[in-house]
Amino acid sequence: MGEFPLPLTDMLGQNGAYLVYLVIGFAFGYTLEIAGFGKSTKLAAQFYLRDMTVLKVMFSAIVVAMVLIFLTSGLGLLDYNLIWVNPTYLWPGIIGGLIMGVGFIVGGFCPGTSIVSAATFKIDGIVFVLGVFFGIFLFGETVGLYEGFWHSSYMGRFTLPELFNADTGVVVVGVVIMALAAFAFAEFMEKRFGDRTQLTFPRWRFSAAGAVLAVGVTTLLVGQPTNADKWAAIAPEQEARLNERAVQIHPMELLTYMNDRGIITYVIDVRSESDFNQFHLIDAHHIPLASLLGTVSDLHLQPDNTLFVITSNDETAATEAWKILTAEAVPNVYILEGGINGWLTTFGDEEFKQQSFIADHPDDRLAYAFPLALGQRFPAANPNHDVFEDVEYTSKVVLTIKRGATSGGCG
User: Fold this and answer.
1) Distance (Å, whole) CA 404 – CA 68
2) CA 134 to CA 127: how far, in whole Å?
3) Average pLDDT for the chain
4) Distances in whole angstroms, Cα of residue 165 to Cα of each of 81, 126, 150, 159
5) How far, in Å, CA of 313 to CA of 321, rounded?
6) Strands 264-269 and 285-286, how do they pair?
7) In angstroms, rounded to a whole number, what is the distance separating the alpha carbons of residues 329 and 306?
8) Which pLDDT score, from 0 to 100, does residue 1 have?
9) SS3 340
10) In angstroms, rounded to a whole number, what is the distance separating the alpha carbons of residues 189 and 184?
11) Least confidently predicted of 184-193, 198-207, 289-298, 402-411
C-alpha cells in the first residue's frame, strides 16, 4: 500500500484539509488566468485552428499527470486504487460531452475557465457562469424524466488498459506518443492558420517532450504492482492482525450492524454457487474468490459508511479474500468469525442444527445439510436481532475514513 495519496483529514483535520483544497483550487485558477484561459477569444481560437494553446496545455497536464501517477504507482509510492476515476456511463457520457462541446464552441468557455473569467469580472464569463447555474437548475428539475437513460450503460471504473486489454505501461507510452503527434499537428495548424512562425515556438519543448517520453518508457519497464506484490508489502502488519483475530467479527456483531441504519453492511460471500444457493445471508453479494479482484473498483465506490464483511463456509476462503481486498486498500473489511457455519450455529433453530449437522465435514465446507436450495428464504438468513440480543461478543469493528477521494472530475 503506497504512502500516497496522503490522508489529509487524518493529518490536518477537516478544516486543515479544506484549506489545502482551497489553496490547490486557487493555484489552479491562477494558473489558468495567467495562461490566458480567462479570455473567451483565446479559448475559441482553437476551434478555428489559429491558437491551439488550450489543446497543448490541457493535453500536457493530462500526459504529465498520467506518467507520474503510473510511475509512482509502479514504484509502490502511490496506491492507484485511491485515485478517483470517474465511473463510465457510456451513452450519457457521449451525449453530455457533445452538449458541453457545443456550449464550449458557442460560449467560448468550459465550466472551469468560465469561473476564472468571472472571477476577474469579465462580463462574458459572468454571463456564462449564470448560464451554467441555470443549466444545473434545469437538469436538477428534469432529470427524473430521463433518469433511466442517465444511469444507463454503466461500465464502472473503465480505463484504456481495460479497453485495449493491454499492459498499463504500453498504454502510457502510446498516449504520450499520441500527445506528441497532436502537439506537432497543433503547431502545423497554428503556422498554417494563425500568426505563429517556427521561431515563436520555444526550443525547450523538445527537451520536455523527450523527458516525458523517457518517464513513460520507464513506467513501462517498471510495470505495475500485482495484488501479490501489494500484499507482500503489508503482510507483516496485516498477518499480525489476522493472528490476533482482530478482523474476525462475531456473528452477533455483524447482525447488530445489519440492524444499524447508520451503517451499510456489504456482505461478500465467496463460496461456490451451489453453497450460496443452498443458504446465504440476506442481501449477501455472491462474488467467488476468482472474481473478487475484478470488483475492487466498484467496492471503492461504495459510501464511506460501508462495512464489508467476507464470509465463506468457515474462514479459509474468506481469509484469502480479506487479504486480496486489504492489499487493494478497500477500507473497513472484516471476516465473519466461523463463516456461514458459525452463523448457523449462533442463529440456527436447535432442531435444524441437531438434525442437519455434518460432524465430519471438511474444512471450509458447509457443516449443515439443507434439503432444498433455500438461499436467503431460510429463517436464519435474517434473524430477529431482539431475540438474540443477549448473545455476548467482543466488538472489533473500527470504521476508518477513506484515504482516497470519493468524487471529482473536470469542470
Assistant:
1) 17
2) 11
3) 93
4) 18, 44, 27, 10
5) 13
6) parallel
7) 14
8) 58
9) helix
10) 9
11) 402-411
Task: Find the largest Cα–Cα distance for the chain.
Answer: 90
145 DSSP 8-state letter: G
**Gyration radius of the chain's alpha carbons:** 27
The two beta strands, 264-269 and 306-311, are: parallel
Tens digit of pLDDT for each residue in 51-91?
A: 999 899 989 999 999 999 999 999 999 999 989 899 999 99
pLDDT band at 320 (very low <50, low <70, confident <90, very high): very high
Confidence of residue 411 (pLDDT cuts 50, 70, 90): very low
CB 348 within 8 A of CB 323: no
Unique residue bearing C-alpha cell 443477549: 390
Q: What is the pLDDT of residue 404?
A: 66
**Predicted structure pTM score:** 0.86
Residue 70 CA to residue 78 CA, distance in Å, equals: 8
Residue with cell 500516497: 4
Q: What's the CA gap between 387 and 240, in Å, rounded?
A: 35
pLDDT higher than threshold 70 for residue 237: yes
Write out the three cell numbers for 162: 481495460
Positive or negative, the CA dihedral 207, 211, 217, 221 is: positive
- Locate all alpha helices (DSSP H) within 75-226, ordered by sequence: 90-107, 111-119, 123-142, 147-150, 160-164, 168-193, 204-222
CB contact burial 9-47 (16+ within 10 A = b; e otherwise): beeeeeeebeeeeeeeeeeebeebbeeebbbbebbbbbe
- At 118-177, the pLDDT tens digits run 999 999 999 999 999 999 999 999 999 999 999 999 998 899 999 999 999 999 999 999
Nearest CA-CA partner of 208 in 185, 179, 187, 188 = 179
Torsion of CA 149, 110, 185, 200, to 10 degrees: -170
DSSP 303: -
Place of cell 424524466: 145
